[in-house]
Design brief:
single chain; about 160 residues; Ubiquitin-like (UB roll); DNA polymerase, domain 1; six-stranded mixed sheet; 6 strands; about 30% helix; binds FE2/S2 (inorganic) cluster
């Protein structure tokens, strides 16, 4: 990656299907880059220490805690945030639709992270069981729902993904 004046780097990566070129400070986290530089506010800042899952995003198809990753590590890679998830028809992703249909959202703060975690699970294991879903979502803290509706919505969406 090319270093430019003042210690910044030139970053080239894909964000939600579009190639972008940005100057980036070396100490910037991926979460700061997503929310503040790209203005994509669906990715949430919770604990800031890798404990809550609110900040999950997909990097090369895998879920990462964006609060723990440096933005410069995105060089040449593909970032997908909650705003970049789409259904086959270009509309809402089946996980997003199912969460709405099932009323699996209360305040909604944790939900982008939960949906990213579920999408990453389905990409690596399309035949995930309910136990796999529960295990995957242990890294996502929800203060409102008690998890039952969330797990059930993820299970229902699995057939539609
Ligand atoms: S904000 Fe990143 S895990 Fe909580
Ligand atoms: S719906 Fe409020 S934190 Fe999960």
């Amino acid at each position: 990656m090319k270093k430019i004046s003042g210690g910044a780097f030139k970053l080239k990566c894909s964000v939600n299907g579009r190639t972008i070129n940005r100057e980036i400070e070396p100490g910037r986290t991926l979460l700061e880059f997503i929310r503040e530089d790209l203005g994509l506010k669906g990715t949430k800042e919770g604990c800031g220490e890798g404990e809550c899952g609110a900040c999950l995003a997909l990097v090369d198809g895998k879920a990462v805690n964006s609060c723990l990753m440096m933005a410069v590590q995105l060089q040449g890679r593909k970032l997908v945030t909650i705003e970049g998830l789409k259904g086959r028809d270009g509309g809402l992703h089946p996980l997003q639709k199912t969460f709405m249909e099932e009323g699996a959202v209360q305040c909604g703060f944790c939900i982008p992270g939960v949906i990213i975690a579920a999408e990453a699970l389905f990409r690596k294991n399309p035949a995930a069981t309910v136990e796999d879903i529960k295990l995957e979502l242990t890294g996502n803290i929800c203060r409102c729902t008690g998890y039952e509706k969330i797990i059930s919505a993820v299970e229902k969406a699995q057939k539609k993904v």
